[in-house]
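Input sequence (160 aa), recorded before submission:
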Amino acid sequence: MDGSARDRDAEGRARNARPRDGLGRPLPYGADGVARQPEDVARTPEQTLVEAQRLLDAGMPFHAHEVFEDAWKSGPPQEEPLWRGLAQLAVGLTHAARGNAKGGASLLERGTGSLARYAAGSGVPTYGIDLAGLATWARELADRLPGPLDAAAEAPRIRG
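Predicted structure, token format:
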């Protein structure tokens, strides 16, 4: 790629085709990268949580955020704050692991707020997610920033 044209997918939409590392950072064309998550995958909530936890445990929170993003875009509208909040926490961990303490703390705070608003709804499904535990994890992580951070070692347990 010479930079004069944008990468496009089969439908002609702009899509960056550069390989990415485990934290979602672009690598040079031709470099070995981490396989990307397929986009627009409709998963059950259980499948979403299992796949996202696998990615978090592997130190790939950027990729976990993409799984949560699919759930927020394809799920019922009333569950959007749940999946968006989880995606924000994953991106917060991503930024923190990349060394962006301010961005990491901001996204951890936003994610915690989204989850708190969701939890305040009556009768909303939580799928066994430990919302209070995630909020505690996010606050404690944000309080330790900046500092060296291993995404896999810091990965939260979604279900406690």
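Checked by second reader. The mean pLDDT is 90.
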